[in-house]
């Protein structure tokens, strides 16, 4: 063998290093031309920033197996043109596009259309992160659903526009159109300043997207919304594959029926991850989660502050019930003493 190490073996090593930190590939590529060639093949993620934008065609040629492209926050001009470059590049395995832009940026609608003209991207794109695009509207959701029917993860964000211009919002109509076409959808995240969706959106997602595993609703304390306990209850009871529920709502509209949120928690038997704010949970609610005995791996409770003594007993009960499965516990904005932490531990 004369000490020769095949390229395939080096690829496996570089892939493992990439899993720990893809930036390690930059250093490896400087060792030799051979390592440069191998590291180019195993690089899967590309961050496009303003200072490297002019190099994009060369970078896409250099890294033929890119799976994820992140559009950096410092890019604020001609996003459509940038996306068009990606679409025409011949990227073979692009599966994720993420926009980390300034909130004022308009959605690159022409860029989306250009991406969909590339049949490989249209067929393989699974993740579209629009959390950097704050001007999303119903027509954008319809466009995304038409262009990328195989999406599995979608992240949406709206600004704090409270005007009466319905056309400038995301409403139930847009979500319903989206849900009716994205049959492969597994994760959806809404981050809203002013949110105009109602229970109808949650019911449509739960009914149409049978593979749905994660729903995340984050609505700021200043933003209005029209989600009630009934919508949450419907999702938990009818989404059989749901394993992650994140409800960062600083208020919740009351149910038209009694104990709807109690019903939802009592039926949360499959959840691996649960995030809730103090307005949505009490000692009684925590005990209902315990009764459901979900295999929780991640639990995040936000903003309880001085309310901790009221739920102390229920929380201890929950931690005991999940001691074999719980891997991550986050208590954010809690007034906990060393004694309290020791007690929970």
If classified by CATH, what would the architecture of the largest domain be?
Alpha-Beta Horseshoe
Q: Into which percentage range does the β-strand content fall?
A: 15-25%
* Highest-level CATH class of the largest domain: Alpha Beta
- Please state how the strands of the largest beta sheet are arranged side by side: 1-2-3-4-5-6-7-8-9-10-11
Total number of helical segments?
A: 15
Radius of gyration: 23 Å
SSE pattern, N- to C-terminal: HHHEHEHEHHEHEHEHEHEHEHEHEH
Terminal Cα separation, in Å?
Answer: 55 Å
Globular, elongated, flat, extended or rod-shaped: what is the shape? Answer: globular
- The CATH fourth-level homologous superfamily of the largest domain: Ribonuclease Inhibitor
* Number of domains as seen in the coordinates: 2
The chain-level mean pLDDT equals: 81
Fill in the CATH topology of the largest domain: Leucine-rich repeat, LRR (right-handed beta-alpha superhelix)
Main sheet record: 11 strands, parallel
Query: Which ranges are low-confidence, i.e. pLDDT below 50, for 5 or more consecutive residues?
Result: none
